[in-house]
Each structure stands twice: as C-alpha cells, then as structure tokens.
Give the backbone structure.
Amino acid sequence: MSVIFRNGLVLTMDDAHTVLPGADVLVVGDRIAEVGVGLTAPDDAEEIDATGGILMPGMIDTHRHMWQTAMRGYGADWTLSQYFVWYYLESGKLFRPEDVYAGNLLSAIEAIDAGVTTTVDWSHGLQTPQHADAAVDALEAVPGRFVLAYGNIQQGPWEWTTSDGFRDFHRRRIANGKLAGFQLAFDVTGDPAFPEKAAFEVARELGVPVTTHAGVWGATNDDGIRLMYENGFMTPGTVYVHAATLSSDSYHRIAATGGSVSVSTESEQSAGQGYPPTWQLRKHGIPVSLSMDTSVWWSGDLFSAMRTTLSADRSREHLEAHGKQETVTNHHLRAEHVVDWATRGGAKALGMDSEVGALTPGRLADVVLLRNDDSPVMFPILNAYGHVAFQAQRGDVHTVLVGGRVVKRDGKLVDADLATARAKVAATVDHLRETLGEEAWKRGMNPEVPPAELFDNPYQYTDYDAGSAQWKH
C-alpha cells in the first residue's frame, strides 16, 4: 500500500529541523519513502491533499496512566494527596482486569485520534498477571504504537518484579509480542535500605529500561536519585517522570548518565509535584519528552502539553527576571523546542529515534496531517511551530497514519469500535459506583473546599461585602 500527501507544510523534525513548504510525503508500505516537492508516486497510491495543512511526525507520549481513562475528569479538583489516597490506598484496588481493559481501550483510541501515534502505558494498576493480560489485550486491539510500562502500586517493586506470575507474563506477552516496547514502572522512595534494588536487577536481567516518578513533592526526592546512582542503576534508557523538585546535584546525575525527563506540565501545575522543571532541565542539558499523565484530571492530547509547557517555562523566566528588577526581552524556550519534545524528544527517550519521531526516508510512517478547512483557527499559518504549539487542537487532526496504515481520515477514526469502548467504560463506571456506594462516589469526586480567608480591605468604604459573592459549592 502506498500513500502520498500532496502540497503540505512539512515539519520534518530532522536534525536540522527542516521545514518544507508545498511539499509531499510519500509512504510505501510501512515506511516513509521520500519527502520533497513534486514527488512521483506509484499509480496505486492513495493521494491525500494536504494543501493549507501542516504535516508532522506522529506525536509521542512518554507517560500516560491509560487504565484510569474510564474515570475521565472524575478527579478534576483533586490534589496529588487525594489521588494517592483514592488510587493507591483505597478505591484503586477495586479495578478488575476488565476495568483495566476498558480504560486502556478508550485511552488508546483517544491517543490516535489526537495524533499521538506512540504512547507509553504507565500501567501501575496491574495487581495481577490477569490485569496485565487485559492491558495488553486492549493495546493490541487498537492500531497505534504502544509501550507497556508494567507497574503495580499495590505491592513493592521488589515483590512483583520477582514473582513467578510476572515472569510468566513477560515470557508469554512481551518476549514475542506485538507491543512497540516494554519498561518497568516503579518509584524509588529513598529508603536507605534501597529495597528497589531487586527490581532494578530484574530490569537489567531482562534488558529493559526503567521509568520512575522522580522529584515529586512529598513522595520521591534526591535520596532516591542518589541511591540509584550509587548502585549503578542510572542508565541512558531511564526516564524520570516529573523531576520537578530535585536538587542541582540530582539533575547533574541525570545529565551525566544520559537519562531523560518526561514533563507532564498540566499535572505538575495542577497537582503539586513541583513547578514544571523545563527551566531547570534546560540549564542542565537534560533531554525532554512530554506526557499528559492521566485523564482522571487532564486532557489526553499533546497540544495541551506543548502549550502549557511553553507557557510555564516562560512564566518562570519572567518571574525570576522580575524578582531581580529585570525584563525578559527574548525567550529561551521556543515553540520549535516543544514541538521537538512532543515528537523527536519522545522517540529519543524510548530508544526509538531511528524509527519514529521525524518525517525522513526510512523511518516508520507515523504521520499526522493537521488540516481543518472549517476552522477559522487553521489560517493563516505563518509560524508553523507556533501554530502547532498555540493554535492547533485535536479537532484539527485530519489524517493519521501509524506504520503506513490510515487510522484516521478526514477527521474521522477508521475502524475504531467506539461502541464497544463506550459499553466497557460504562460497565466500569457502574461497577465502581455500585461498589463504593453513591455517597462515597460523590464525595470522592467533590473533595472538601477549604474556607477562604479574605484580607481586610483598607479601601472598603461601603457596606458591600465582597465575600458574599464567593462561589458556593
């Protein structure tokens, strides 16, 4: 099968970040064959008009808790502590294998709809091998590219990684499976005994990378990084998620050992892991990829990730300058950089840079066309990177190819079984509501609002009480 995109504005994301106006992208089989102007295509090639649109590589999300997607938006008003209590200590234990399947299925479909062609399923809800089988079954049912990051928040990583059930799962589903990759997903608490050492040794034995939530306020800190370093477990393939509250010494260790950081800006801003760390990562020369974390709170696309990351970095830059009575006259972080992080950055973090992340001949044909003739936001396109980062939305994703296969065409998903996904997600919601009880369900979704304390206003000279106009929950 051959596909040719005609006359698009092509963001190649190659080493030089070449931008080609009025160019074509030819796909033959599962690979990109040529990129250029006026290409000759095979007679049987499907032709897609990219006029007025932007062609870019499929985006790559390096940290998404896909199993939680069935509860989309439930925790919109949570803090990180409330998330931990709900999923880690209490209600997360109620998820059955079929509930993991439902969340993964919906999340996988959602990813390709938004032009995210490669997604890391940071799957820390795998309480049993049956839960893990369900996670993989869902990922294999959707024509995207998925990396399973196996985790289990109900056990210590030194327990589940060394279990017979995990070994059997890895042999059955991973060694010869269809997934794009495999990681071990666990956190390092900083316990001086370093119990996580056993899990790192399993990762080394299996030859797979580790992805870990690092630098999360109140949860993981510099001690965890130090223990990893002193025991020789900081490797180029390690992905540090968030990394928002680390010391300069920890950042130096990550940089020196070739690790990368997955930044989830919406999450860090809203939940309190720490200030989104790109301003620190830039100073230390640490590679960055982007992620959306979980749909129990936030949006499931990387347009939001690019936009919020760029804004947070610039906000910090201005804030620090203002504190010194200075003015920022030129931004360090550019739109071009966050588009790179959403594509090539993810490919590098996953060790897949030779295969995905750029539109260059020989790479796998993961291609996204942004075009929406019905939208007043999709013209004029003057600054292509700025348009992707600040203007485009998931509704502007016109066509998506994964490995040369068209999975979205003319703004519509191809062969996506939304009816099945909807039914399975509804069953999960019903199960959780019935098991928790309606009162607990509503209480979990609506955490208590702390009372507001207003300053006395010395300029108040009427009897008007501004406090009475506050929102009532």
